[in-house]
Amino acid sequence: MQYRHGGDIYSVTSAALLGRGTVDADNPIDRESNYVLPGVQADGSPNDVAISSTEFGFNTYFGGDINELSVFDGTTIRLQEASLGYSIPKKLLEKTLFGNLSFTLSGTNLWFKAVNFESTLNYDTNASSTGVGNGQGIDFITGPSTRRYGFTVRASF
């Protein structure tokens, strides 16, 4: 098990999915509504200009000037690796060709929970689209992470 506490993650992937309304979120964007954002006009009067859901989604979450909506807390709980092995007792191998025989079932990146991301995003905070080790925390539309399983048989004669 691993636990990472904090750290900021700039995730364009998450912002794009939220901004397009393609994931069930706590505060979903209603694609059929218009929005009046809080703020003021140039003359100081309250903003009363409605924008479409597309403008709201793309200009606030994805590609707009408000980058705070793309920054998330990186706290993550993770089951990074697990394995289960069994060795056949030597007593059972006495009348066989084998000196030792064992089996191992293993897996990596088995489960993770990014506790401060929308739960329906299933976002892996280890994602990095920069291609370098010092790019941690920066995500520009990254594909999903992989989960790997393995089965090993070891035998000696």
Overview of the molecule:
The protein has 157 residues and is mostly beta strands. The chain has one domain (2-156). Helices cover 13% and strands 34% of the residues. The chain contains 3 helices and 9 strands; from the N terminus they run ββαββαββαβββ. The chain has helices at 12-19, 53-61, 90-93, and strands at residues 2-4, 8-11, 34-36, 50-52, 71-73, 76-87, 100-114, 138-139, 148-156. The strands form 3 sheets. It has a 4-stranded antiparallel beta sheet with strand order 1-6-7-9, with no helix packed on it. Strands 5-2-8 form a 3-stranded mixed beta sheet. Helix 1 packs antiparallel against helix 2. The chain is rod-shaped and about 90 Å long.
What is the spatial order of strands in the main beta sheet? 1-6-7-9
List SSEs in N-to-C order: EEHEEHEEHEEE
Question: End-to-end distance, in Å?
Answer: 36 Å
Biggest β-sheet strands, sense, barrel = 4 strands, antiparallel
Total of DSSP H or I helical runs spanning 4+ residues: 3
Cα-based radius of gyration, to the nearest Å = 24 Å
Low-confidence stretches: none
Please state the overall shape, judged from the principal axes of the Cα atoms.
rod-shaped
Q: Helical proportion?
A: 10-25%
The percentage of residues in β strands lies in 25-35%
What structural class should be given to the helix and strand makeup? Answer: mainly beta
DSSP, total strands: 9
How confident overall, as mean pLDDT? Answer: 85
Number of domains: 1
Quaternary: single chain
Protein name: TonB dependent receptor
